[in-house]
Amino acid sequence: MQTVGLPDGPASGLEAFQELERFLSDAAEAHLGLSELERGSERRSRELVRLSLQAHVDARGDGDVGEAIVVSGPDGPVRLAYKRLHTRSVLTLFGEVRITRVGYGAPGREAIHPLDAELGLPERIYSYECQRRLIRGAICGPFDEAIALVCEMTGLTVPKRSAEQIVREAGVDFDAFYAERAQAEVKPGRGEILIGAIDCKGIPMVKPERALRVVRRGKGEKANKKRMATVAAVHGQAPVVRTPEEVLSSLFATDERPERPKRTPPHRKRVWASLLADKDTFIADVKAEMVKRDPRHRRTWVIVTDGERALQRRVCQTFTDVTLVLDLLHVLEKLWKAGHALHPEGSREAEEFVYERAKRILGGQVSQVVKGLRLIATKRKLTGTKSKTLEEVAGYLYSNRERMKYDVYLANGWPIASGSVEGACKNLIRDRFERSGMRWTPATAEALLRLRAIYLSGDLDAYWEFHIQQDQRRLYPTWHSS
Question: Is residue 315 a contact partner of residue 287, using CB atoms and an 8 Å limit?
Fold first, then answer.
């Protein structure tokens, strides 16, 4: 493969532009292909822009604003009158840019550089735009792939430890961003119901350093334990009235295939999760999000959860005037368990058993199904595991019967399954956190959960602008010249 080599680096943007022209001229004589032209032009164009950017920064001056500046301190105003030039580097999309600027200091005080605030520089050596692209890559795939992608796009190599730290720092404004979001942005449309869904999903964690070495694990023990993250989804949805037959046709391979009603997509769906927040705090955040969307509670509120009693109790304690719905898919799991206790797995008999009982439950006959399961155990004189399984399933259905009024929910057009949060568990956690060999520390997992939730909710660009504003406020105090 023929290549046209780069000379020693150009000293200015003009020289870089001339070098790009020479490269393209020589490339014609060397008969380079388009791929070689793209790679060679990219390198030279990057250097052209870097030098132009450097020239622009140099032309902005050194940020000298006078003899001294005054900043606010805990004991009153502080005058910073010691002036000294400092140089720092920033790694941009186009390479390194060096910035020489005046710092104002005083004994025992950290120097303040007005030009840093004027240029909006980050604390780290990597520019905000480099950080954004790295974070976007880390949100979607492994850190190694994100680092390689940034290197290919910019020529910068970011150490993995630095990449993880950038991700941890980037998620700090998550709560503030959603707390300050205007209510008008997420207000439900006319006639919509407000839907919340809550679930839990495990994330594989790094084994603690002081964990005891085990020669042989016991039955059921795993090499790496998972830590449960609480997952939520909140969105508006137009009611969709359905019949039990329509629901069954979507769950079972039946001959009857009624035409499904056209559904409108969820309105301003937000998904998020937390590994570190306790469940009470997390559920309070779900309520806050729903209150922001419907502060006067004019819409119908529906909360879909699984059968975990502790989670249901917390929801009931936090919410009032809300319909709590048991996820139908969890009910089907229990019915399949009962069906396989009586019939072989994969058999036609097992499927018919589950289908018939699901049909009755969707028709509002939960109590009859419970009685029927117990009657089967009695009439067939079942003992041992089969009897215990049927009793467990019957007990589960009975204890959740108040949240299984599916005939009413379907007639009202309300959801009966937590598809939104199940999808969130898959997209938010499983697709990113449960890949082969992945293990997480709590801090990194929590930050990435936040950023991935922002991304999946369609808020990444707005959040990044908000994060930069907040970061600048933390980095640069207000001052006035003296």
Answer: no
Of 428, 451, 469, the residue at which a domain comes to its end is 428
Residue 448 lies in a domain: no
The token duo for 263 is 């559904």
pLDDT in tens, 310-338: 888 888 888 888 999 999 989 999 999 99
**One-letter amino acid for residue 450 of the chain:** R
Residue 471 located in a structural domain: yes
Do 242 and 304 reside in the same domain of the chain?
yes
What's the whole-model pTM score?
0.83
What are the φ/ψ torsions at residue 438 (nearest 5 degrees)? -75, 135
Radius of gyration for the chain, computed over Cα atoms and rounded to the nearest angstrom = 30
Number of independent structural domains in the chain: 3
**What are 90's strand-pairing partners?**
97
Q: Give me the pLDDT at residue 216, please.
A: 53
Q: In this structure, which amino acid lies at residue 371?
A: K
Give whole-number Cα distances, 334 to 228, 246, 373, 391, 399, in Å: 22, 21, 12, 11, 13
- Rounded mean pLDDT, 214-225: 54
Based on the domain organization, do 405 and 298 belong to the same domain? yes
The tokens describing 86, both together, are 């400092």
Q: Which residues pair with 101 in a beta bridge?
A: 86
For residues 296 and 423, state if they share a domain: yes
Residue 256 tokens read as: 């009857």
Q: What is the mean pLDDT of the chain?
A: 88
7 in a domain, yes or no?
no
Q: In 10 A of CB 34, how many CB atoms?
A: 7
277 and 346 housed in the same domain = yes
Question: What is the span of the domain harbouring residue 23?
Answer: 13-59
The CB density around residue 69, as the number of other CB atoms within 10 Å, is: 21
Q: Please spell the DSSP secondary structure of 250-272, one letter per residue.
A: HHS--S--PPPPP-PPPEEEEEE
pLDDT of residue 187: 73
Neighbours of 107 (CB within 10 A): 5
> Which tokens is 115 given?
């030009």
Interhelix angle 328-342/348-362, rounded to 10 degrees, is 140
In 35-108, where do the E strands start and end?
A: 69-73, 76-80, 82-92, 95-106
Which residues fall within 8 angstroms of residue 140, CB to CB, at 6 or more apart? 146, 432, 455
Is 423 among the domain residues?
yes
Is 418 found in the same domain as 293?
yes
Same domain, 416 and 271: yes
Q: What is the DSSP string of 449-467?
A: HHHHHHHHTT-HHHHHHHH
Instruction: Give me the phi and psi of 182, to 5 degrees please.
Output: -65, 140
pLDDT in tens, 187-215: 777 788 999 988 888 999 997 655 445 55
Q: Are residues 191 and 242 in the same domain?
A: yes
Mean pLDDT over residues 108-135, rounded? 95
Do 408 and 464 lie in one domain? The reply is no
